[in-house]
Amino acid sequence: MSSYSKIILQSGKEVAIKRLHPWIFSGAIAKKDNNLKDGDTVEVFDKKGDYLCTGHFYDGSISIKIFSYEQSDINEDFWLNKLENTIKVRQSTPILNKQATNCYRLIHGEGDGFPGLIVDYYDGVVVFQAHSIGMWREKEKIVAGFKKLIPNLKAIYDKSYETLPENFAKNVKNDYLYKNPEQSFSIPHPVLENGHTFLIDWETGQKTGFFLDQRDNRDLLAQYAKGKKVLNAFCYSGGFSIYAIKSQAELVHSVDVSKKAIELVNQNVETNFGAIDNHEAFAEDVMGFLKRNDQFYDLIILDPPAYAKSIAKRHNAVQGYKRLNIEGLRRLAKGGILFTFSCSQVVDRQLFQDTIVSAALEVGRSVRILHHLTQGADHPVSLFHPEGSYLKGLVLSVD
């Protein structure tokens, strides 16, 4: 058995761990080794000296992120076994069984027992994105598992610079961890999602290159889009737009403040449909577009980036969601459909719904909820870590 640094908890603070919550906060720690460094693997014990769990240490509010409740060597085989489990979970869902889809989330942080790690798969290319120093330091062991378990692996790209703590990230460079000399790929890299083609650029694109969490919600939108005038706000690479066009929407407008995103939307439209005249993309601020535009839409998608990443900014985020949805509701035709989302983890499902209620009252519209939406099954949520349910969505019928 390997020996790791030890953490001793305050009396009574082991209760949350026994309930399998994967975070230990700094205030729960009674004693720790003086020479601990960020990212070190530590074993956690209660006041009696009984082993509780193993995790990665970080000198911050969340001091330990737990990845094992069994005392063992944290070696290559340990991570291989965990990776095998995540693949089995995805094989149990329809995700990997569709010939029409070859991109999905392979590891979803705490939901898969890899706290602080996101890994996305794009038709043979794996994008590794560590949000914790500990997971970044484990990358060689985890990469070895990818090589053993993923058939026809083309490349592994580390895109952790943007997501690691700033002081640590200054010495980190996004780069390829592996390239298979027998497997070629290009950037942008075409993938399939429910039969639609999307061009993925993991090197310069947002997040890992695509927003895979909206796959099922895009598929649902397709059932509403036929014959509709559609606005896709915060469109990024045009996921919802492609589904709407394929479903014979009368008109589709895609809006994003990023000119690079709009270029990618237009590329995806051309790749899927060639030259068409019922789609137009606008590189504009969404709020400005909504206020200046006199077009009424039958179907609007509001999918903004996270408005708050900390509790301190939650109030401002709620006000931002309210203002956005007020403008969206004002541009929605009578009998229209609104797909509205929040990906801010600190804004829970009830608070988000209450915010939309407030927006609807402000504009005097009668609204019915048709669907409650969340992330896809390849973004699983641990029952013991509800914070992992970050994506909230509502489909609303608006009179």
CATH superfamily of the largest domain: Vaccinia Virus protein VP39
- Which fold does the CATH topology of the largest domain refer to? Rossmann fold
- Helix segment tally: 11
Distance between the termini: 65 Å
C-alpha-based Rg, rounded: 22 Å
| Average pLDDT | 95
CATH architecture tag of the largest domain? 3-Layer(aba) Sandwich
Low-confidence stretches: none
Oligomeric nature of the chains: single chain
Backbone shape: globular
Task: Report the sheet with the most strands, covering strand number, pairing sense and barrel closure.
Answer: 7 strands, mixed
Give, in spatial order, the strands making up the sheet with the most strands. 16-15-14-17-18-20-19
Helix % is: 25-40%
Summarize the model shown.
The chain has helices at residues 15-18, 76-91, 133-137, 139-149, 166-169, 215-222, 239-246, 259-273, 286-292, 314-330, 349-363, and strands at 5-9, 23-25, 29-32, 41-45, 51-57, 62-68, 103-108, 117-122, 125-130, 155-158, 175-179, 189-193, 196-200, 229-233, 251-256, 279-283, 297-302, 332-342, 367-373, 392-398. The protein has 399 residues and is α/β, with parallel strands linked by helices.
